Amino acid sequence: MPGQQEETLIKKKYAKEIEQVELWEELLRKSIVDEGQLDAICKGNIDKEKLKAVIKKYPMRINPYYLSLVKKKDDAIWKQCIPDVRELDDPKGFEDPLCEERDSPVPGLTHRYPDRVLLLVCNQCAMYCRFCTRKRKVGDPFKRITRAQILRGIEYIKGHPEVRDVLLSGGDPFLLSDSYLEWILKELRSIPHVEIIRIGTRVPCALPHRVTPELCNMLKKYHPLYVNIHFAHPDEITELSESACNMLSDAGILLSSQTVLLRGVNDDPKVMKDLMQKLLKIRVRPYYIYQADMTMGINHFRTKVEKGIEIIEKIQGWTSGLCVPHFVIDSPGGGGKIPILPNFIVSRDDKKIVLRNYSGKTYTYEEHC
Ligand code: SF4
C-alpha cells in the first residue's frame, strides 16, 4: 500500500482525473444500449427494426465518452461502435474462429500454448466493438462469468506448474471493481509458478476515466504486471487516454498495444503509422497488428492480408523500430498467432544472402564459412 505522503502526491498530480473517479460508473450507466437511443442520435436515419435484430444478437454499448470521439457519420470511431445490418449477413464467419472453446479444459480458460493460459474474468466492456472476436459472448447477460468459474480456472492453473504466464481478458477485466480484480490478482500471485500476469483491456482507450489512482495503487502490488491496450485509430488518443496511460506507466506497468486491421477504419499505412507514433508518445509500445479474425458478423471489416503487409512495409525502416508492431494472423482453427512479414530476402544460397532494405536498395551479406 502506498504511504499517506505518496497518496497525497498521486492525488495532486492527477487532480483532474480524480474529479472523474466517480464518473466512470455513471458514464457506463449513460451508455446507449438500444435502437431507440440510437435512432435519436442518428436523427431517425436508421432502419430501427433491422438494428434491433442486430443488437439482440450482438449487444450494443456506447458510453458517452467514446461517442464524443465521433466527428462525423461513418468515421473510424463510428464504424467501431455503431451496429451495422451487415453483422447479420455473414455466410463465411465462425462463432468461435480461434476454437477457444475447444482448447478450454475448464470453462473460461484456454490453454493452447505450452507455458501460458488465457483466463476470462468478465464479459462486460466499456463499449462493444462491432468487430469483436468474442462477439459470441461479450455483453450477453446469460453468459456472465461467475466467481465460481474463475475459481475453477485458478484451480486449474494451480495444478499446472508449466503455466508461468496468465493473460486476464474477457470482455474487459478493468470493468471489474478494484476489490474483485484484486481478489483475482492475489489468488494468482499466491501460485509460485505464475511468473507473469498480463491484462488485456480497452478501458484506457474507450473509458479512460476508469483508470483511477486507486486502481493503479492496487495494480502495482502485483508486479510483474503487463497491460495490453486495444487502440485502433489515432483519434482515440486524447488528453484523457494519455492521462490514463501515464497513470498506469507511473505505477510501473509496461504498456503495449494491439490493433485489429479494419476496413474503413485503419486500413491505410498513413493512419497506422500515425497511430503507432502517437502510441509511443504516450508510452505504449506497439505490439501487434492483427489481421481481422474470421468471426461471424465482421466480414465487412475484413481486409486482404496484403494490406497488412503493405502497412508493415510502409512503417518498417521509415520510422523508429519501436513503432513497428508484429503483423499476425491468429490462425483459424486454433493454430495460434503466426507472424506475417514482407519479404526482405531477394535471394539466398550457401554463400550469401541478398537483402532488400526499406527503400528498395539491395545489399549482400556473405555467410560465414
Ligand atoms: S473491448 Fe475487446 S472484448 Fe470488448 S468488445 Fe471490444 S474487442 Fe471485444
Structure description:
By secondary structure, the chain is an alpha/beta fold. The chain has a single domain, classed as Alpha-Beta Barrel (TIM Barrel), CATH 3.20.20.70. 33% of the residues lie in helices and 18% in strands. The protein is built from 14 helices and 12 strands. Helix 13 packs across helix 14. Bound molecules: iron/sulfur cluster. Iron/sulfur cluster (SF4) is lined by residues 125, 128-129, 132, 134, 138, 170-172, 202, 230.
The first-level CATH class is given as Alpha Beta
- Give the biggest sheet: 9 strands, mixed
Strand content of the residues, in percent?
Answer: 15-25%
Tally of individual helices: 14
Low-confidence stretches: 6-11
Q: If you average the pLDDT, what whole number results? A: 93
Spatial ordering of strands, largest sheet: 1-2-3-4-5-6-7-8-9
Per DSSP E runs of 2 or more residues, the count of β-strands stands at 12
List bound small molecules: iron/sulfur cluster
Here the CATH topology equals TIM Barrel
Q: What is the helix content? A: 25-40%
The CATH architecture comes to Alpha-Beta Barrel
Structural class: alpha/beta
Order of helices and strands: HHHHHHHEEHEHEHHEHEHEHEEEEE
**Backbone CA Rg:** 21 Å
- The number of distinct structural domains comes to 1
